[in-house]
Structure formats: C-alpha cells, structure tokens
Amino acid sequence: MSRYPDFVGxxxxxxxxxxxxxxxxxxxxxxxxxxxxxxEASRTYALIGDQAVLRKSEARAEPLFTxxxxxxxxxxxxxxxxxxxxxxxxxxxxxxRAVADELKRRGLLxxxxxxxxxxxxxxxxxxxGLAAAKALLVWHARHRFCSVCGAPTRLxxxxxxxxxxxCDALHFPRTDPVVIMLATDGDRCVLARQAHFSxxxxxxxxxxxxxGESIEEAARRExxxxxxxxxxxVRYFASQPWPFPMSLMIGxxxxxxxxxxxxxxxxLEGARWFARDEVAAMIDLHHPEGLTAPPPWAIAxxxxxxxxxxxxxxx
Length: 315
Hints:
Strand content: 25-35%
Radius of gyration: 22 Å
Helix content: 10-25%
Order of helices and strands: HEEEHEEHEHHEEEEEEHEEEHH
Number of strands: 15
C-alpha cells in the first residue's frame, strides 16, 4: 500500500488554497493599510532571501509573528501587504542575511521554503502565504531600478507596484509561466532526471514558456527539445504556484507522435520510457531498482499519479 494519501480528485497541491484575501481594491488605500499596520491582530511572515523565520513549537513551527515581534528582528528591506485573514492584516518583510545567525541564537528557526514544504514544518495553510511572500519579495529585490530609464524605483500600492522616481513608469510583479508535461504513448510515458534531483527520482519534463508562445506550443517545443519527441494533442491538467523563485507550473499531458528518444544532455541527466505498472511501483516506493516519483507536494506527482490511475488523464 502506498504511503501517500489519496490526492486524486482533491489535488491538495502545496502553495495553493490559501485563506489570505489579497484585497486588490483596498491595498492602494493608504489609510486602510495604516490601520492594518496599527492593528495588534495583524501578523507578518519574515523572510531572509529564500528562507523563512519560524518559531519552534511542540508540533509544527509557527511562521507568523506580531508586527512588534518582527520589528526586533532587524531593519526590513521591504514590507509588503499580502492581504487579510478574517479582517486582520497579513504582511511579509524581507530581512538582511546578516541577521540569520542572531535569530538562530534567539531560538528561532531559519529554514528555506522548499525544505519547509517537503518536511511539513508548518501547517499547510501557511504555504500559500509563504509562497506569495517569497515571490513578491524576490521581485522587489530584482526591480530596484527602472527598466525604462534606469533610475531608482520606490515601493507603491502596499508592495504590489514599484514606481520609477524619474520617468514615472509603473512596474508590477510578474510570474514566470512554466509548462510541466507528461508525454504519453498508450500505457507508457516519458520520465526524465536532472542532475540536481534527489537520488533515483524521475519526473516530468518542464520548461519556461517563451514570449509569443501558447501553453500548447511550449509543451510541444520543450518536449521536442529535451527528448526529441514530436507531440500532437496537449491537455491541461492543473497548475501550481512555484516560488523558486516566482513561477507558475502549468501541468499538461502531451500525446507522443514519435517514440525515439534523443536526450538533450545539457538539460537532462537522462530520460526513458516507463510502463504504467512500473510508474505505479515508483509512486508506491516498490520499484525493484529503487526508482521513485516526485513527492505529493509537487504538481509532477499528481500529473504522474493521475495518469497511472487512468483518471481520464492519458494524453
């Protein structure tokens, strides 16, 4: 029996299903935002690069702090409003890397968000907030100067815009779209490995969507580029925010029109066809060679598993 719970039909993807209301119509209201900052019920996530500050607890760690607590962590590069939760403000602050050791000496945890998700260190309901916080703060760190004229930019609209101080250009946060797809041919599919994958793990193909390209075109192109397979029909499955650093994974199935593999070794360590039964054994951790599929926190797991269980997902 698989150690993984039955996710098919529920799709409990990490970084999705958060409770924070983003409040797009109110976050430009300076008075309303000031009231949230003065509200003792408001809370904030504190990030240091790709790491989050956590308070230890007997069960799972706590990633939210009062604004007063967070103010003792050090000066923030940015403070952004993520939205509200039952009317209380939810913020995120970006801290300097130099404060990490001091916070650890104070008994706090400083852990990268990927490890937080993999290890289940915080309640799952906090992952969407942490993902939004990380992606938004990374965007601010990378857009301190105007792409139009090169002048410095300043934070605006509670963190959801940067304004040029010289030419008045407005800059808004961006998300990088990525296609992640399973190429199928009847009862077999293509899985691949990258060098940075955990030992023995095989996963879907993936790649960034290029300018002027549709999801379907990108899925076909990336499959052709990485493993040399021509593809026809493309079917959408689901999507997942992916804060590494600020992407959206768009899950698809692609119908293989050819089967000979030509692996791009500049991108992949290897790729091969797998039979449905073999992939099922990988998901259940019973593969004779010890091969595994991605864990349930990643959309790749759900794309592969839905195909294995033939939940109307085959390409």
